[in-house]
Design goal:
7-stranded parallel β-sheet, Rossmann fold, 14 helices, single chain, alpha/beta, 3 domains
């Protein structure tokens, strides 16, 4: 598929998702929303309402999750019906679980065929996503997951693909492209194409080129899903070029193996069906066709209308947080400390002595004489240190921006910006390592010069948040709490 064949779209005014959310809530019968900060949990039977397969529900229960987050409740029902999705939602609200559950729900494992392809921008994030797939597919023993990224011998990856081809591949674009070009990674059977932190991969010219090359190795007919906490308007248009749209789409709908004969211009009532259960009701207006074929799609939960023997897909579902103020985490307390560059070490040590914490992440621009994670480190060592921190063997992590996106460590409740982030997007992703999924957290930023002060002002203006100077004393209850583990926190 040539790059020129990627469909072009006119940038259009985004439609609000409020009505869709209301409709979704209505289908849950007596479902009501319980507000926890800015996170709306659905007071009902929770994940069971999403009509997921029993194996997934068992895994979700084992993880201690009960209620889907707002973004999960809004996206998963559409994703499991095969709809293309572009989703921007705040960090820590469970975006990873959307595509992991949606792809596992629809997956029919075929020996020797890669069906799911997930790409992200860092090795650590790829590793984390692969573990999420393993966690949620624990009762699907036939499903094989592999992760591929640079910094490790490519021969090992080639051996895995040759001897035990995975059904789900997670990786970074550079390594996946190298494997694809040599023919070791065969992508002609891919049905699901996912980009996590898509703004980073589409916005970076080199990474975008790799993503496009990989995209052209996959079939034209597939489901495409893209996710990020930050997604500028100019990149939204680019993201949609990877997706399919028809000018007058039929609607994902249902019935079982029969034909609906209609007269052009008339309206017929069709039901959504998932797993044999009525999902919702809609009206379908056939335009120029005399008949609408209702067909099941190979053991997938949703069935889709085919017209003139071609699958007609709805336009991509777009989920955006239009008000950027909503992108910051509700339970996160944010402060700054004004000081000189040579005063940072002493102040940091004083704060670590004074504050109570579960785990801490300290962000800076380059390597630091401490236990750290940074790009110059050998990959095996990077993963080992990441796992130590994830397993709570270490309580303080010093990291560069390498760790600033997507990484989900549930016990982190304090983030230090030892060095000021270079822009507002980076600030948002960094501080979101704490206070995830509506819980409490604390972010402290060191401001040592006028440039730092300007960046801090930009953060406050963009996200409509007031960041005060750090007081002498902070109420412990404002930034630390005991996690109950009853919500899906995978990002």
């Amino acid at each position: 598929m040539d790059e020129e064949q990627l469909l072009d779209y006119e940038e259009e005014q985004e439609e609000t998702q409020e009505q869709q959310s209301k409709n979704d809530a209505t289908t849950n019968g007596d479902a009501t929303k319980k507000i926890k900060g800015n996170y709306a949990s659905i007071h009902s039977s929770g994940f069971r309402d999403l009509m997921l397969r029993p194996e997934l529900l068992r895994a979700i229960i084992d993880c201690g999750f009960e209620h889907p987050s707002e973004v999960q409740h809004e996206c998963i029902p559409q994703a499991i019906l095969g709809m293309d999705i572009v989703c921007q939602a705040k960090s820590g609200m469970g975006k990873t679980a959307v595509f992991v559950l949606a792809t596992l729900q629809q997956l029919t494992p075929t020996d020797g065929t890669v069906s799911v392809l997930v790409m992200c921008h860092t090795r650590e994030l790829a590793f984390q996503i692969s573990k999420e797939y393993e966690r949620f597919s624990k009762y699907m023993p036939g499903v094989k997951v592999s992760v591929f990224f640079g910094g490790m011998p490519i021969k090992k990856d080639e051996e895995v693909l040759a001897k035990n081809t995975p059904h789900i591949v997670v990786g970074t674009p550079g390594r996946l492209l190298a494997l694809g070009r040599t023919g070791h990674l065969k992508l002609k059977g891919v049905k699901f194409f996912v980009l996590d932190e898509c703004d980073k991969m589409i916005g970076d010219a080199d990474m975008r080129h790799d993503v496009q090359e990989i995209f052209k190795m996959t079939p034209q007919e597939k489901q495409v899903m893209m996710f990020s906490a930050t997604l500028p308007r100019e990149l939204r248009v680019v993201c949609k070029k990877f997706m399919q749209e028809v000018s007058s789409p039929d609607i994902l709908c249902c019935a079982m193996n029969n034909w609906a004969m209609t007269t052009p211009g008339t309206t017929i009532k069709v039901d959504f069906i998932t797993g044999g259960c009525v999902w919702d009701c809609v009206s379908l207006e056939p335009s120029a066709c005399q008949s609408v074929r209702i067909a099941l799609s190979d053991e997938r939960s949703g069935v889709i209308v085919t017209r003139n023997r071609a699958i007609a897909r709805p336009k991509p579902m777009e989920v955006y947080v239009d008000d950027e103020a909503k992108l910051t985490l509700h339970g996160l307390q944010q402060y700054y400390v004004r000081l000189k560059e040579n005063e940072k070490n002493r102040k940091l040590l004083d704060l670590l002595d004074a504050l109570e914490f579960n785990q801490v992440v300290i962000f800076l621009r380059s390597n630091f004489p401490s236990i750290a994670i940074h790009r110059a480190m050998a990959q095996e060592e990077r993963l080992a240190r990441y796992q130590q921190f994830k397993d709570f063997q270490k309580r303080i992590l010093v990291a560069t921006n390498l760790f600033g996106r997507g990484m989900d460590i549930e016990r982190v409740n304090i983030v230090f910006n030892y060095d000021m982030p270079e822009d507002t997007d980076t600030y948002l992703h960094r501080v979101a390592r704490a206070g995830r999924f509506g819980t409490k957290g604390l972010a402290i930023t060191f401001v040592s010069d006028e440039t730092d002060a300007q960046t801090l002002n930009s953060v406050q203006d963009r996200f409509d948040v007031t960041i005060s100077e750090l007081p002498d004393q902070i109420d412990v209850g404002s930034y630390i709490e005991t996690r109950t583990g009853n919500n899906a926190t995978a990002e």
